[in-house]
Amino acid sequence: MSRTGRRPGVSGSREAILEAARTLFAERGYEGASLRAIGASAGVDAALVVHFFGSKANLLEAAVDWPFDPDTEIRRVLAGGRRNVGRGIAELMVTTWEHEGSRNSILTLLRSASTEPRAAALMREFTQQRLFAPLLAALGSDRPEMRGELAASQLIGLGMARHVLRYEPLASAPVDEVVSLVGPTLQRYLAGKL
Asked: Which site from 26, 38, 44, 48 is most exposed, i.e. has the minimal number of CB atoms within 10 Å?
């Protein structure tokens, strides 16, 4: 009879659970990834998953591993000058999504946001507070909340259309073309006249 619960010896169970959660949330979405399946993938009982995280929503929050540091990327985007911030943000996001490993957290949240309030809150917090609020403050743009929400809606819609719904020809368009098409809209939202 196999044992359940903690692994014998030094426990890496928490990290194994997080890794299993990242993989299964990305593959199956929030609704499709059960605590039992995450536990099984990590080699532990579902009760240990609950012990560490309390709920699936808490596990989702802990498993989100943002693919870039917003502070670093905002400085890089601003280094290109005010006239290029739209293209810089478009390039950052579109390029990030092209790498399967780096887009999983963002796509997991996009897929989950309509059914899990915590996923929606995480996505809002990241786009509004960590990405666009500091960028717009540095730009000194008027109406920063509206501008940030417009830019976020553009990028979230792009991510959904390109990587979740897989609209063609958008889904298979080259990165440079997508950046060139979306950049001017983001530029207006971030630094142009509304």
From this structure: 26
| CB of 168 closer than 8 Å to CB of 176 | no
Q: Could you give the dihedral angle defined by the CA atoms of residues 133, 180, 171 and 146, in that order, rounded to the nearest 10 degrees? A: 30
- Per-residue pLDDT tens over the stretch 1-29: 444 444 443 368 999 999 999 888 878 87
User: 15, 58 in Cβ contact below 8 A?
Assistant: no
- 60-107 confidence digits (pLDDT tens): 888 887 788 899 999 999 999 999 999 999 999 999 888 765 456 777
Lookup result for tokens 């390029």? 95
Reported as a pLDDT band with limits 50, 70 and 90, residue 161 is very high
Set out the domains of the chain in order of their start, with CATH numbers.
13-63 (1.10.10.60), 70-191 (1.10.357)
- Most distant CA pair in the chain, distance: 68
Q: Is 68 helix (H, G, I), strand (E, B) or coil?
A: coil
47-57: pLDDT as tens digits: 999 999 999 88
Q: Tokens for 181, please give them.
A: 């098409």
